[in-house]
Amino acid sequence: MVAAIFSLTMQILCLTLFSLSLLCTAFTSRDYSDALEKSILFFEGQRSGRLPPNQRLKWRGNSGLSDGASYHVDLVGGYYDAGDNVKFGLPMAFTTTMLAWSVIEFGNSMQNQIENAKAAIRWGTDYLLKAATATPGTLYVQVGDPNMDHKCWERPEDMDTPRNVYKVSTQNPGSDVAAETAAALAAASIVFKDSDPSYSAKLLQTAKKVFDFADRYRGSYSDSLNSAVCPFYCSYSGYQDELLWGASWIHRASQENSYLLYIQSNGHTMGSDNDDYSFSWDDKRAGTKVVLSKDFLEKNAAEFQLYKSHSDNYICSLIPGTSGFQAQYTPGQGLLYKASESNLQYVTTTSFLLLTYAKYLSANGGVATCGTSTVKAESLIAQAKKQVDYILGDNPAKMSYMVGFGQRYPQHIHHRGSSIPSIQAHPDRITCNNGFQYLNSGSPNPNVLVGAVIGGPDSKDNFADDRNNYQQSEPATYINAPFVGALAFFSGKATAN
């Protein structure tokens, strides 16, 4: 009985006092710092183009060096989105935005990883700048035919599938992908403002032009490009959320009044009146509300009260016991569960928003209001920590869902480059069809894609370490990007206590 009472008391302390919660975990500041380093290193495994001399994942080689050449445009560089060899603009831009936001909010906690984080952002923005400025009135949004690419299993260094180039234009608009690209460039301009002011200025100037293009020529890129992007990265939420998201980031980067007026004039028609409880490469509503709530909390600006209220509703949906609670959690250790495919993308974005909103509340003495009750920042942090720790191995399977972290992690991830012998180990070409022997092999991947966070377990905490089960075993840049910020937060907090 005494032991039970003590256990209950410790649970309560762990929930309400963050400093004590650090004592209630298997993870130390060193663990979070190690995971942070690995989460950023992952992006080197996703690089397309000519790799730099300081490339750390040595099993990767140059790839896609003629991307865009047949269209007389330089589209070399950027990131492969997941386990394939296509460069999809919408998730790449969102990934870049989230990496930048991670540095903006939690860069002070990244310590010796800050330059690696900036390098990961710059690899994305260098490419997005090319895509946005190569041809007037045009934004290049994709390289590679996904339907053909998915019929092959080959290393990016060997790929011989068509490198078709896809674009949106004044005649074939893509407001969603263009406005997300503007958000990425604007957010990154904040990151580089002090360390590289000329680059920062170029990013912001381009962001404004791309946003103007997105706003003036409205339409969804899914309608313009059809099967090239659907069903892979269809814009299911439409483009209104990206327009408000893009304007919010340019306002934050520039502090120009015209973008504030745009937000005030258009916010209510762009989904801000609706409470949506997921945040992803497709749907930016929850993230936008958190971004804009900062202005209300810091400046008590009445025009942003709406966004604070909607951010509260989002937060309340995640916290058990509140009147607005509606999230689903798995039975063991309570992982947030939203989708059977790549569920951890929602876990990492949600964790990031919880921590960012907690930061905004803490800095301004605020709380989240859930009906007649309130939720303090400490509760948001505790909920985010539960999700982060689950991914790192505090779960029923006792498995880390970050490759290369911990004693036990997935060995058979759905990733072409990781699963096929590297060009260093096997210099001879491995053709499209010959690669399938590695997809179907029971052997562990020969190349460890360090830091990759994969799709994760199902609604019952079950996970199959199976390369063919892409829903659970495929990594993606947009899963990792918000996790960088979350890990930086806990690395910094752990160090301080």
UniProtKB/TrEMBL annotation:
Q: Which residues cross the membrane?
A: none
Q: Which residues form the active site?
A: 414, 465, 474
What are the GO BP annotations of this UniProt entry?
A: cellulose catabolic process
| Keywords in alphabetical order | Carbohydrate metabolism, Cellulose degradation, Glycosidase, Hydrolase, Polysaccharide degradation, Signal
InterPro entries per the record? 6-hairpin_glycosidase_sf, 6hp_glycosidase-like_sf, Glyco_hydro_9, Glyco_hydro_9_Asp/Glu_AS, Glyco_hydro_9_His_AS
In the Enzyme Commission scheme, what number(s) does this protein have?
3.2.1.4
* Pfam families assigned to the protein according to its UniProt record, in alphabetical order: Glyco_hydro_9
Q: Which domain of life is it from?
A: Eukaryota
Q: Which GO terms describe its molecular function?
A: cellulase activity
Its family remark reads: Belongs to the glycosyl hydrolase 9 (cellulase E) family.
Its protein name is Endoglucanase
